From TrEMBL:
Natural source organism: Collimonas fungivorans (strain Ter331)
Protein name according to UniProt: Ribose ABC transport system, ATP-binding protein RbsA
Enzyme class per UniProt: hydrolase
A GO term, aspect molecular function: ATP hydrolysis activity
One GO location term (cellular component): plasma membrane
Record's signal peptide: none
Alphabetically ordered keywords of this record: ATP-binding, Cell inner membrane, Cell membrane, Hydrolase, Membrane, Nucleotide-binding, Repeat, Sugar transport, Translocase, Transport
Record's subcellular location: Cell membrane
Main localization of the protein described in the UniProt heading: membrane
Annotated ABC transporter domain residues: 20-258, 270-514
SUPFAM superfamilies: P-loop containing nucleoside triphosphate hydrolases
Protein transport in keyword set: no
Membrane-topology annotation of the record: Peripheral membrane protein
EC number(s) per entry: 3.6.3.17
Taxonomy of the source species: Bacteria, Pseudomonadati, Pseudomonadota, Betaproteobacteria, Burkholderiales
């Protein structure tokens, strides 16, 4: 969407926002064992876009869940259209037009796109589901978010995370919507999809829909919103027009200190290869791929969603079975036998997965157990877990990674998304593997904590570890990497040394595999839509 169109929509939204508040919050607080929100008072009017930001654990998601009926406030109250409002469930809030697209997706992977979209309102004819109408309604709804090439009957579990996010957004645009809460909606979207989302936001705003837009991407917030609210440690520290704040000022409000603009990787020695991948491939997903990862090196993997980045890491880690190719560890002349993650870990390979919720953590279990899970023998005596030793390990990593938590006994599922990601990283740091594969290591992590992670990655490389990092944030890769390999349509098409790359050359390589006679194809049929890496 053009900046002019967005500006016009925002102007219309400001006019609508002068009306009586749609939703008012007064003195909202939430306490679990300790307070996570304290005395938050804020309102939003029809047609207004409120940017809500803050560090991980600042209370953003808790506040939005209270608004949308998923969590009850401990103190304070809310009013909708000037009347008391206290939804007892998400369904009740949705009935009143209050909808939320959560950071953690709320889809059923075994059901199709169509069934997920219209789960509670499947069209019927003569007592049977009208599949033709359901498919047509689904195509119309998916076209509204720019996805026209997906089969409505595709199981959601077969889609990439970016596509799943767009399905979730499409689901929440069905029916009446008066207030839409978007929690990190662009974290896994392509540039094209982001523009489509912004177009939808402008349309909703022009129709008088209020929007609470939660994100750590401050430049994005400044583009889409007029007003910003900043939470820090559960308290509202800013509620003002966004135009008066620079990115640096917003960061300081969020974290209580200025964020660093550059990263000093320090002196490192790039040594001999730790990992040699030779012609590894799997069907049409990953073409035969070869590369070396050297000791002390940070090698980034850029590309688009569906380009094979995650799939390449999974092949190396043994999570998926390769059709061909070999992996060599260090200077070994015999290929490693890796047919499962257990084999990979034994060979000295760790992997921080993209999906922390379903693949990275035991959510009901403690931070301590999740941290030591890959090396339980080190905190056990004669086969019995030493809880004191486990607690000491957990406390150490909580401090090192600035994990916002009560203590190491707290369940991982009670943490914010970014802090959950830090627990996953802590596990593999404790395992101390020489080869570390990172798939979106800072997804959902706020700007202040990102630099903590970057410094940690730099320290690991100085220790001589080899780091292979997939990221959808091109600026992140350009900041921390020694080399950047680019995948396109399942193929490794180019590799750039530091000092030889630019954003334009990397993006050109990322799109190169999708060129056809009519120009760039948004994605082949068996991949996810393009994601600027």
């Amino acid at each position: 969407m053009s900046n002019e169109s967005m500006a016009a929509a925002r102007s219309d939204g400001r006019a609508a926002a002068s009306a009586v508040p749609l939703l008012s919050l007064s003195g909202i607080g939430k306490t679990y064992v300790e307070p996570v929100l304290s005395d938050v008072t804020i309102s939003i009017s029809p047609g207004q876009i409120l940017a809500l930001t803050g560090e991980n654990g600042a209370g953003k998601s808790t506040l939005s869940k209270i608004v949308c009926g998923l969590v009850d406030a401990t103190t304070g109250g809310m009013q909708l259209d000037g009347q008391p409002y206290r939804p007892g469930s998400r369904k009740e809030a949705e009935h009143l037009g209050i909808r939320m697209v959560m950071q953690e997706l709320n889809l059923i992977p075994t059901l199709s796109i169509a069934e997920n979209l219209y789960f509670n309102q499947l069209p019927h004819r003569f007592g049977w589901i009208d599949k033709a109408r359901l498919a047509e309604d689904t195509r119309i709804q998916m076209a509204a978010v720019g996805l026209t090439d997906l089969d409505p009957w595709t199981p959601v579990g077969e889609l990439g995370v970016g596509h799943q996010q767009m399905v979730e957004i499409a689901r929440n645009l069905i029916g009446s919507c008066r207030l839409l809460v978007l929690d990190e909606p662009t974290a896994m979207l392509t540039n094209r999809e982001v523009e489509l989302l912004f177009t939808q936001i402008a349309r909703l705003q022009s129709e008088g829909v209020a929007i609470i837009y939660i994100s750590h991407r401050l430049e994005e917030l400044k583009r889409v919103a007029d007003r910003i609210a900043v939470l820090r440690d559960g308290q509202l520290v800013c509620d003002d027009a966004i135009g008066g704040y620079s990115t640096e000022a917003l960061v300081q409000l969020m974290v209580g200190r200025a964020a660093e603009a550059e990263l000093d990787l320090g002196h490192r020695t790039i040594g001999a290869p730790l990992l040699r991948v030779r012609n590894i491939g799997r069907g049409k997903v990953v073409a035969p791929t070869s590369f070396d990862l050297r000791a002390g090196e940070i090698l980034g993997v850029a590309g688009l969603i569906g380009s094979g980045r995650t799939e390449l890491l999974r092949l190396i880690f043994g999570a998926d079975r390769a059709d061909q190719g070999e992996v060599f560890i260090g200077d070994q002349t015999q290929a490693a036998k890796i047919s499962s993650p257990k084999d990979a870990i034994a060979a000295g390979i760790a992997m921080i997965t993209e999906d922390r919720k379903s693949q990275g953590l035991l959510l009901p279990q403690s931070i301590g157990l999740n941290t030591t899970l890959a090396k339980l023998s080190a905190v056990s005596k004669l086969g019995v877990l030493d809880q004191q030793a486990e607690a000491a390990v957990a406390d150490d990593y909580i401090k090192r990674l600035r994990i916002r938590s009560r203590n190491g006994l707290q369940a991982a599922g009670e943490l914010s998304g970014g802090n959950q990601q830090k627990v996953v990283i802590a596990r593999w740091l404790y395992r101390d593997c020489p080869i570390m594969l990172f798939d979106e290591p800072t997804r959902g992590i706020d700007i202040g904590a990102k630099f903590d992670i970057y410094k940690l990655l730099a320290e690991l490389s100085r220790q001589g570890k080899g780091l292979l990092i997939v990221s959808s944030d091109l600026r992140e890769l350009m900041l921390i990497c020694d080399r950047i390999a680019v995948m396109s349509a399942g193929k490794l098409v180019d590799t750039f040394e530091r000092g030889q790359w630019s954003q334009e050359t990397i993006l050109a390589a990322a799109f190169s595999g999708y060129v056809n006679g009519n120009g760039y194809d948004s994605a082949p049929a068996d991949t996810s839509t393009a994601q600027a890496a």
